[in-house]
C-alpha cells in the first residue's frame, strides 16, 4: 500500500486528473480502468508520473494506504453506479470514494446515503475546467462528510487551480451540495455564453462590422469590467478564419447549439425550488430553439419589421451593448446564486456563497474578475437576499440601465432575438417593482378556483363570492 490517492476511469478527464495528482509533491497515484489496455497506455505514455497500475479492484484497493481514497472519473450514470458497487466490496469503513463525474445531485444524495450505510465515505465532487483544467488545475466543488474532507482537503487543494494565491476548492456542503453547485455553475455558464452571443449579434447586425472587427471590440472589453475567460475566447473564435473557404469560421459553423443537459438540470431544479433563473432558462431554450431546423425553415416566412435596422452612432451603440451585457450578466449571476441559496435551504446545506464565488475565479469556464465583486458582496452581507442589490452592483445598474433599455428596445424594433438581454431586464424591473400585477392573478385564481387572497390592509385570508352576491368572506387559507 504505497499510493495515497487512486483514480478509476482513465479516459481524457481521469488520465489528466491522475497526471495532475502525480505531479504534486507528496502524491503517489494508483490507477485503474475497466479495460486494462487503457491503464497500460497511460502507464506507457507517462513514465514520469510513477503511477501504480492495478488490473483488478482488489489490486487497486491493496495499493492504497488507509484511509483509501479514490476519485472516480467514469461516464456519469450507470458507469458511476457500477464502479461504486465494485469499490464498496474492496474498501473498508473510513475509506473515501469520490465521484468527480458530472452527476445530477439527487443521484449523489442517493449514492451518499447508500454508501454511508457501509461506513465508507462518499463524496460527490463537481470538477470544472474540461480536460485542460483537469491536467493543469480545475475548480473543484466537493460535497460529502466533514470526516472525508480531513483527508481529501489537502489532496484536492494540491491539484486545484490557484486564483490570487488561493486554491479553487472548498468543502461546499454535505452529500450532494458539490454537484448541486457545479450544476448551477454550468447553468450560469449557459447564460453568460448566450448573453455574449446576443451582444455579438446586435453589434454585427447593427453596425455591419465583420467578425474580425467585433473580435477587437471583445478584446477591448476584456480589459475592463467584463474581463473573463469567456469574453477572451469569444474574441479568439471571432478572429478565426476557415481554412477551406477563407470565410470567418463563425460564418461556416452550423447555427444549432448543442447541450449535454446540465443547463436543463439547473432550470428543472430552479422550477422545483420556485426560483426564477430566467437568464439561464432563456439561454437553455435559445439552444433548443436553434436546434429545430425544421421549425425554423417554415417560420422563416413569418413577417419581420418593415424598416431596416440602422444604428446612427456606432460607438454609442457598442457602448450601450457593453453596458446591457454587463447588467444582464449581473442578473444571471444573481439568479444563479439565488438558486444555490434556495437549494441550500431546501437540502439543509450550509453553503458559503462568497467562498463559492472565489473558487470559480480560476480553473473553470466562468472564471472572471467579476467574481471578486460577488465575494465582496457576501463578505459584507453574508445573508444578502438578492445579490444584485449589493452596493457595487446597484451602482453598475445606475450606470447601465438606460443603455440596457435602449438595447432591448432596439433589438425588439429590429426583430433581433435577445431573449437573455430582455428577460434579464424584465426580471430586474419585476424584482424592483413596488406593485406587481400578481394582485390581478390572485383575483383571477379566486374567481375560477376559490383559491383565496390576502389583503394589503388587514390580516387573514379572503374569498369573494363571485358566483353569488360578490360580497367578501373570510376564508380558509388554501393558497
Ligand atoms: P467518458 O465520460 O467518456 O467515460 C469513459 C470512461 O468511463 C472510461 O474510462 C470507461 O472505461 C469508463 N466507464 C464507462 N462505463 C463504465 C462501467 N460500467 N464500469 C467501469 N468503467 C466504465 O470520460 P471523460 O473523461 O470524458 O469524462 C469522465 C467524467 O468526467 C464524466 O462523468 C464527465 O461527465 C465528467 N466531466 C467531463 C468533462 C469533459 O470536459 N470531458 C468536464 C467535466 C466533467 P472503459 O475504458 O473500460 O470503457
Automatic annotation (TrEMBL):
EC number: 1.1.1.44
Entry-linked SUPFAM superfamilies: 6-phosphogluconate dehydrogenase C-terminal domain-like (SSF48179), NAD(P)-binding Rossmann-fold domains (SSF51735)
Any one Gene Ontology molecular-function term assigned to this protein's record: phosphogluconate dehydrogenase (decarboxylating) activity
Domain 6-phosphogluconate dehydrogenase C-terminal: 178-467
Classification via InterPro entries: 6-PGluconate_DH-like_C_sf, 6PGD_dom2, 6PGDH_C, 6PGDH_Gnd/GntZ, 6PGDH_NADP-bd, NAD(P)-bd_dom_sf, Pgluconate_DH
Family: Belongs to the 6-phosphogluconate dehydrogenase family.
Oligomer status and interactors: Homodimer.
Name used for this protein in its record: 6-phosphogluconate dehydrogenase, decarboxylating
Organism: Microbacterium capsulatum
Gene encoding the protein: gndA
Amino acid at each position: 500500500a504505497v499510493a495515497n490517492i487512486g483514480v478509476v476511469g482513465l479516459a481524457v478527464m481521469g488520465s489528466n486528473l491522475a497526471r495532475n495528482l502525480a505531479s504534486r509533491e507528496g502524491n503517489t497515484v494508483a490507477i485503474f480502468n475497466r479495460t486494462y489496455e487503457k491503464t497500460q497506455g497511460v502507464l506507457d505514455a507517462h513514465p514520469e508520473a510513477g503511477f501504480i497500475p492495478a488490473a483488478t479492484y482488489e489490486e487497486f484497493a491493496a495499493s492504497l494506504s488507509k484511509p483509501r481514497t479514490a476519485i472516480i472519473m467514469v461516464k456519469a450514470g450507470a458507469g458511476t453506479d457500477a464502479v461504486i458497487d465494485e469499490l464498496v466490496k474492496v474498501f473498508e469503513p473510513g475509506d473515501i470514494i469520490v465521484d468527480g463525474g458530472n452527476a445530477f445531485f439527487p443521484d449523489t444524495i442517493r449514492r451518499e446515503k447508500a454508501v454511508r450505510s457501509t461506513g465508507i465515505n462518499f463524496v460527490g465532487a463537481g470538477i470544472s475546467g474540461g480536460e485542460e483544467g483537469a491536467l493543469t488545475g480545475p475548480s473543484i466543488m466537493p460535497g460529502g462528510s466533514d470526516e472525508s474532507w480531513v483527508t481529501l482537503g489537502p489532496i484536492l487543494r494540491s491539484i486545484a487551480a490557484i486564483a490570487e494565491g488561493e486554491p479553487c476548492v472548498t468543502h461546499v456542503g454535505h452529500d450532494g451540495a458539490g454537484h448541486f453547485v457545479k450544476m448551477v455553475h454550468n447553468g450560469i455558464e449557459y447564460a453568460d455564453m448566450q448573453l455574449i452571443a446576443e451582444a455579438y449579434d446586435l453589434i454585427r447586425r447593427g453596425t455591419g462590422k465583420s467578425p474580425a472587427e467585433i473580435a477587437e471590440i471583445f478584446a477591448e472589453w476584456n480589459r475592463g469590467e467584463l474581463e473573463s475567460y469567456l469574453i477572451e475566447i469569444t474574441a479568439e473564435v471571432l478572429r478565426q478564419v476557415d481554412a477551406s473557404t477563407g470565410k470567418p469560421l463563425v460564418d461556416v459553423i452550423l447555427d444549432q447549439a448543442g447541450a449535454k443537459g446540465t443547463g436543463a438540470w439547473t432550470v428543472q431544479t430552479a422550477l422545483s425550488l420556485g426560483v426564477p433563473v430566467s437568464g439561464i432558462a432563456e439561454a437553455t431554450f435559445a439552444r433548443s430553439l436553434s436546434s429545430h431546423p425544421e421549425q425554423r425553415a417554415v417560420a422563416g416566412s413569418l413577417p419581420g419589421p418593415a424598416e431596416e435596422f440602422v444604428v446612427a452612432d456606432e460607438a454609442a451603440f457598442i457602448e450601450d451593448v457593453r453596458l446591457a451585457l454587463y447588467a444582464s450578466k449581473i442578473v444571471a449571476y444573481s439568479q444563479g446564486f439565488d438558486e444555490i441559496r434556495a437549494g441550500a435551504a431546501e437540502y439543509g446545506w450550509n453553503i458559503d456563497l462568497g467562498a463559492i464565488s472565489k473558487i470559480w475565479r480560476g480553473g473553470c469556464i466562468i472564471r472572471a474578475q467579476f467574481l471578486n465583486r460577488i465575494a465582496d458582496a457576501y463578505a459584507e452581507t453574508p445573508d444578502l437576499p438578492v445579490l444584485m442589490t449589493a452596493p457595487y452592483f446597484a451602482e453598475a445598474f445606475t450606470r447601465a440601465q438606460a443603455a440596457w433599455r435602449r438595447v432591448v428596445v432596439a433589438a425588439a424594433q429590429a426583430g433581433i432575438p435577445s431573449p437573455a438581454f430582455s428577460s434579464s431586464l424584465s426580471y430586474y424591473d419585476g424584482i424592483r417593482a413596488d406593485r406587481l400585477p400578481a394582485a390581478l392573478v390572485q383575483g383571477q385564481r379566486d374567481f375560477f378556483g376559490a383559491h383565496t387572497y390576502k389583503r394589503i390592509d388587514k390580516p387573514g385570508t379572503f374569498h369573494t363570492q363571485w358566483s353569488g352576491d360578490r360580497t367578501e368572506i373570510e376564508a380558509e387559507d388554501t393558497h
